[in-house]
């Protein structure tokens, strides 16, 4: 039986038909729902059920048909939008370090078309010298990785701009005390405000909700606004605050020259995925964090 990815992943799967069938094999493309029995939902809504023993091969696909250059554009802008405090280009990978604060700020991402796993030993050494885990942020299709345990998986969602803003949202160039109080995570201000070749904005609705936007360029010159650090105080949820903060940051991004937007969401965060879908975002690809010391 072929190794199957996590449920929710879009796959192209080849499987055996009952004995005597002509042809003997069939293919199905869709989202993997379960692994035993194997259940795949196609784009028409049909669910195909297959015995695990009949699976011949499986290939992981992006969430929608997309070119590698489009994935690389989003990943390039996103890496510059959360670049960490220290960074270095190495063999087509951008290595980022932020004294351990956040996975994104302490990971290496393959952004050049020539990036490969041949650089992994040097990446391990770079992080070892800083006393950090050598996390690799591996997007779909940008580099071929050996089979490995996945630590975290994110869905990268995108949409085009412009967007309508929300007037009740306060925007500032740096997070103030009120913003940090709602955010609650212990991430240094210098990590939150770090950006390469771009600008950041911090949105806040009183003591109810906050979010961060970063406008940065992709390798092809297009400018993107990325949403991150979106949080609503527990006693102020389900009132539309997250939507308002995100809308204001998207509008700010459009005024700042961005023509597209992205959000990186943990694959198991159904609430955030539903919010972004309702705002016109669609899932483009996935990014998986892998510990390079275990490769």
Automatic annotation (TrEMBL):
InterPro entries in the cross-refs: Acyl_CoA_acyltransferase, GNAT_dom, Rv0428c-like_C, SH3_Rv0428c
Superkingdom in the source lineage: Bacteria
Alphabetized Pfam families for the sequence: Rv0428c_C (PF24553), SH3_Rv0428c (PF24551)
GO molecular function, one term: acyltransferase activity, transferring groups other than amino-acyl groups
Annotated ranges, domain N-acetyltransferase: 156-295
Name the UniProt record assigns to this protein: N-acetyltransferase
Species, as recorded: Mycolicibacterium litorale
